[in-house]
Amino acid sequence: MSEKDVIICRCEDVTLQDLHDMMDQGYTSFEELKRLLRIGMGPCQSNTCGQLVQREISKYLKVKLEDVKTQKVRPLATGVKLNSICEGANNES
Amino acid sequence: MKANYVIIGAGISGCSIAYNLAIKGVKDIVVLEKAYLTSGSTGRCGAGIRQQWGTKMNCLLAKGSIEFFEKAKETLKYDGDIEFKQEGYLLVSTDEEEDHQFKKNVKLQNSLGIPARKINKKEAKQIVPHLNTDVITGAAFCPTDGHLNPFRMTDAYFKAAKRLGVKFYFNEEVTDIIIVNNKIEKVITANMEINSNNVVNAAGGYAKEIGDMAGVNIPVYAENHEILVTEPIEEVQRPMVMSFTKNIYCQQVPHGSFIMGRSNPEVEHNHSNESTWKFLDEMAKTVCEILPLVGNLRVIRQWGGSYTMSPDRQPIISDTNELEGFYLACGFSGHGFMFAPMTGLLLSEIILKEKSTIDISDLHLSRFKNKKDFIYEKSVV
Ligand SMILES: Cc1cc2nc3c(=O)[nH]c(=O)nc-3n(C[C@H](O)[C@H](O)[C@H](O)COP(=O)(O)OP(=O)(O)OC[C@H]3O[C@@H](n4cnc5c(N)ncnc54)[C@H](O)[C@@H]3O)c2cc1C
């Protein structure tokens, strides 16, 4: 299968080809790739693409998988509506 | 290694300065960045671009920069999309005093050629139909303000500078600056020693620490400002909506998601970038009141980044009387992204002893000497 038919990030529709093009330009850490391709910025927050990208970086840089720095994990763990947060906050106070 | 100029920091400021020097023919420029491109405040910012300021200086810095952004893709020959959106900023007022201030600001802005206008609630509602006008008294609107993708804009400067011969080193933290006989001799990182007589401090939240290495006191500090992003939807809000009294800015970016932030008056002075539940609570309450429709969206991520505060909340773009060859671009106090084109241009003029495009003697470091009481720029969140 051609690299441009392989989806790496479903939330932002990023293909393996996009990823490799960016790595060819010298961006080889998850944080850089995230900022330029939006991988890991979508609703799943890199729960899907995180490991796939890590493996691609490891292959590309020829370093061990465990030596590839993982992305920063931030809240929220899952999407929550602002209305619900607002209600929750008002109920507490 | 030897360099003519060493620039510390590869945020939007450092990249703009590198580009502006290189395009004027300066050779042997080295940029040292302790992490990666946009790893500092630049990659964490709201990336709003506005000319609606309360001081003449900020108005001029913003206006000159917008003129650059409008042509940036062509000027910098960037292959990507910088995602520049010019749909305006709607600043809402919540009492008579603020209305009055906005009127004054608009007058100043118009006198400088900025197309802002004071509008009433009804007109504001036409521009942003989901705005809750029960909680506002009026508004000001400038149609040419907007938003830019901060990663792409920095990447555009970075690539243009690289093509002009600037050398960038990432994961290289500057640990010391060696001064001999009151002259800069060397810049030290973990892996390199660079002989250079000129250093540009564009280290964002760490500008004070870099100043300390050079023995120059820079009275700035970093404080954490939090921000969040929602899931993307089709375009429903064209301009940025901002209220200084309600403490909120909220914009739908071209990608479709909403980003919003507010300040924490009790924030400590440090380098924290953490996210807190308190911010999430307060942010949700504020946005649900002022833009109720946005309450239906899911938050997908929150993060934090540094504002580098100066005593008068205006930037420091200057050389230093204390040390020859030491230049500063810092203390942007939460709005350095939108000023970056002017920052780079003006600092390159100082460095090359050229005539300044605008008079920026008020942005010199020396203004803080023996002075404690400052007039603040009030139009900030
Ligand atoms: C939440 C938030 C929202 C914001 N919203 C806006 C907005 O809407 N509009 C706007 O104009 N501005 C906004 N800002 C402010 C804006 O982000 C900054 O003013 C701007 O990015 C400053 O850019 P800089 O290049 O000067 O600093 P930075 O981007 O911080 O770059 C400095 C760089 O120096 C590096 N560095 C530090 N120390 C060393 C060292 N010892 N050796 C080597 N490198 C070092 C850092 O790693 C960093 O990459 C916002 C900021 C935050 C946090």
Describe the structure concisely for a colleague.
Chain A has 4 helices and 3 strands.
Describe the 3D structure.
The complex is a heterodimer of chains A (93) and B (381). Chain A is mostly helical. Chain A has one domain: BFD-like [2Fe-2S]-binding domain (Arc Repressor Mutant, subunit A, Orthogonal Bundle). Chain A has helices at residues 16-24, 30-37, 49-61, 82-92; strands spanning 7-9, 14-15, 80-81. The mean pLDDT of chain A is 94. The mean pLDDT of chain B is 97. Chain B folds into two domains: 5-46 and 151-220 and 312-373, FAD/NAD(P)-binding domain (3-Layer(bba) Sandwich), CATH 3.50.50.60; 85-144 and 221-309, 2-Layer Sandwich (D-Amino Acid Oxidase, Chain A, domain 2). The relative contact order of chain B is 0.19. With 381 residues, chain B is of the alpha/beta class. The chains are: A mainly alpha (93), B alpha/beta (381). At the A-B interface, helix 2, strand 3 and helix 4 of A face helix 5, helix 7 and strand 17 of B. Strand 3 of chain A pairs antiparallel with strand 17 (298-309) of chain B. The complex binds flavin-adenine dinucleotide. Flavin-adenine dinucleotide is lined by residues 8-14, 32-35, 39-42, 44-48, 173-174, 202-206, 210, 225, 227, 261, 305-307, 332, 334-338 of chain B.
Question: Strands of the biggest beta sheet of chain B: in what spatial order?
Answer: 5-6-4-14-15-16-13-17
Number of domains of chain B: 2
Which whole number gives the mean pLDDT of chain A?
Answer: 94
Count of beta strands of chain A: 3
Bound small molecules, which ones?
flavin-adenine dinucleotide
The structural class of chain B is alpha/beta
* Most extensive chain-chain interface: A-B, 23 and 32 residues
Summarize the topology:
The complex is a heterodimer of chains A (93) and B (381).
Chain A: E1 7-9, E2 14-15, H1 16-24, H2 30-37, H3 49-61, E3 80-81, H4 82-92
Antiparallel strand pairs in A: 1-2
Chain B: E1 5-8, H1 12-23, E2 29-32, E3 48-49, H2 56-75, E4 89-93, H3 96-111, E5 117-119, H4 121-127, E6 138-142, E7 146-147, H5 150-163, E8 167-169, E9 174-180, E10 183-189, E11 193-195, E12 199-201, H6 207-214, E13 221-230, E14 240-243, E15 248-252, E16 258-262, H7 277-290, E17 298-309, E18 316-319, E19 326-330, H8 340-351
Parallel strand pairs in B: 1-2, 1-12, 2-8, 4-14, 12-19
Antiparallel strand pairs in B: 3-7, 4-6, 5-6, 9-10, 10-11, 13-16, 13-17, 14-15, 15-16, 18-19
Helix pairs in contact in B: 1-5, 1-8, 2-8
The structure holds flavin-adenine dinucleotide.
